């Protein structure tokens, strides 16, 4: 691939992302279901690309872009750092503690039971399918397109060459399920009194529908200038830091593999290096000249292009080949996320259970943005404190995710599948036990129970 191929690939991707945004802004049906612009663009490119009408001059490398972009995204997650308020945690331990265990359970239920279904059902019905197949559902649903690309790439290196396409399909179905399913549950929730901050499903702002912010007073800032632009552009400063972490993660993977033969995912190492840089910057004062909003915007941009390339590069022939086992896996995945929302969500969240559970539903089927959009609909002013508790619990749940994303491919494909599955079954059971022991179990309360602040 030449530099010109790289330029044209991203130029065409940009064209279709712009078209996707215009469609989102003008087509009511698309607005109604909150389909992201990058996803619209990806589907158009899939139809017009070499898997469809074959009229787009994409290079043969578009399938490799997601695996590279995810390194940058994970570097941004690490460099974004973390914050933890012990005082707030102690004063609101019941709400935050139960929500933390619920978030961990929402991940563990996919990490444990999707691979278990793959081992006990799919691999029995289809012996040619390996034990890593089931985890691709979790990588797509709980992880989204970025994680699906990372896990798929890791499995491909271990011999499961179709993993990325299957993971991307799971991620695409997951996001669509998150959007359509979330709106479906919101309609039911408003009718049955589960929602506490809106009375009608029609409460949706025009900005959320179209994706275009018309009123200037509603337009937020993309970040602060922390370095003088006459010396170095602030965006270049932040991008340079992220690329350093990304490149270092890639190089570290090669060094570790050559030295001891351990093939760790590059995105994991980029995350760890980004975290180390964050801690170093906090000690040396460099962190004062970093703006997390700019870091987040760069990461978000990479995510949009990753979604586009992830969908556009799906090999339809692979999906057709795995159609029946993939359909079974996706149906089982839907059972898991509905169970997480309606049973465990009601049991493990006391006040405002629906709003908090719906947010978890959103990022358990795709990305944080879907959860945020759904929460904006049912709780536009964050009265349920869901976002506050997510920020507080985030650093504590990250290790459970990172271990799964980094270790699942090798463990599931190299004979340690039962160790991995049992580990997350234990974590799943521990979350339930924790809530029962501390009496954070409210399953017997009515679903139309009071809002959070009313307890």
Automatic annotation (TrEMBL):
Pfam families: Glt_symporter. GO terms for molecular function: glutamate:sodium symporter activity. Keywords: Membrane, Transmembrane, Transmembrane helix. The keyword Aminoacyl-tRNA synthetase does not apply. Signal peptide: none annotated. GO terms for biological process: L-glutamate transmembrane transport. The chain crosses the membrane at residues 6-23, 35-53, 65-84, 104-126, 166-186, 227-252, 264-281, 302-320, 326-346, 358-378, 417-438. The keyword Transmembrane helix applies. GO terms for cellular component: membrane. This is Sodium:glutamate symporter.
């Amino acid at each position: 691939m030449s530099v010109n191929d790289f330029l044209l690939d991203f130029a065409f991707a940009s064209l279709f992302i712009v078209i996707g945004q215009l469609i989102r802004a003008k087509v009511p049906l698309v607005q109604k279901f909150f389909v992201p612009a990058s996803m619209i663009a990806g589907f158009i490119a899939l139809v017009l690309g070499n898997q469809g009408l074959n009229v787009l001059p994409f290079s043969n490398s578009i399938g490799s872009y997601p695996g590279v972009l995810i390194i940058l995204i994970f570097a941004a997650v690490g460099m974004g750092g973390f914050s933890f308020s012990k005082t707030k945690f102690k004063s609101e331990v019941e709400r935050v503690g139960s929500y933390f265990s619920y978030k961990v359970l929402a991940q563990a239920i996919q990490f444990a039971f999707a691979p278990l279904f793959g081992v006990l059902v799919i691999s029995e019905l289809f012996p040619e399918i390996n034990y890593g197949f089931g985890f691709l559902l979790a990588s797509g649903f709980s992880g989204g397109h970025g994680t699906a690309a990372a896990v798929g790439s890791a499995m491909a290196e271990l011999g499961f060459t179709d993993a990325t396409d299957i993971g991307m399909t799971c991620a695409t179905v997951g996001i669509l399920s998150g959007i359509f399913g979330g709106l479906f549950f919101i309609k039911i929730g408003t009718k049955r009194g589960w929602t506490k901050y809106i009375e009608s499903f029609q409460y949706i702002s025009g900005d959320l529908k179209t994706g275009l912010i018309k009123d200037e007073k509603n337009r937020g800032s993309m970040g602060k200038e922390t370095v003088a632009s006459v010396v170095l552009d602030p965006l270049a400063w932040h991008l340079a830091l992220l690329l350093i972490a990304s490149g270092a993660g890639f190089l570290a993977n090669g060094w570790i593999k050559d030295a001891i033969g351990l093939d760790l995912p590059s995105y994991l190492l980029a995350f760890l290096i980004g975290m180390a840089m964050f801690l170093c910057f906090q000690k040396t004062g460099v962190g004062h000249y970093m703006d997390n909003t700019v870091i987040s915007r760069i990461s978000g941009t990479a995510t949009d292009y990753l979604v586009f390339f992830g969908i556009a590069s799906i090999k339809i022939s692979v999906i057709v080949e795995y159609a029946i086992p993939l359909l079974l896996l996706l149906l089982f995945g839907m059972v898991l996320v509905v169970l997480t929302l309606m049973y465990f969500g009601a049991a493990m969240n006391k006040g405002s259970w629906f709003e908090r559970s719906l947010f978890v539903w959103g990022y358990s089927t795709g990305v944080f943005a879907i959860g945020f959009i759904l929460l904006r609909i049912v709780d536009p002013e964050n009265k349920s404190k869901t976002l506050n508790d997510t920020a507080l619990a985030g650093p504590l749940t990250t290790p459970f995710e990172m271990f799964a994303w980094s270790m699942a491919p090798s463990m599931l494909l190299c004979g340690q599948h039962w160790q991995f599955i049992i580990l997350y079954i234990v974590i799943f059971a521990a979350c339930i036990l924790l809530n029962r022991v501390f009496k954070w179990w409210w399953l017997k309360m009515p679903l139309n129970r009071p809002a959070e602040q009313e307890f």
